[in-house]
Write a structure and sequence with these properties.
By secondary structure, the chain is mostly helical. 37% of the residues lie in helices and 0% in strands.
Amino acid sequence: MLGIAFYNLCRVHESLRCTPAMALGTTDHIWTIGELVQAALEPQDVPPLPDRTPQSTLKLGYTPLKLRVIPAEKSRVLDKNGFDLSTQKRIKYELNTLTKYSR
């Protein structure tokens, strides 16, 4: 967190010619590292975070849809004409291509 604060409050950027915090109007001067550390160590009155438990969007008495699982297609091997090969033909086709290129 101090690295982000240093980047935004202490480091002068070449393209901006000031710090990003000065460009946004958050501060009016370039902070020193001492100011940054002092601000980081000061106790702060920070309100507690709000409860983030999500509220249900379901209405009372509403039953959500049951999802149907669609099985994936089996992998298909097509011959040079684009036709689907049966298992037996696929094995022969793979053996032929292996022997053809292994010579």
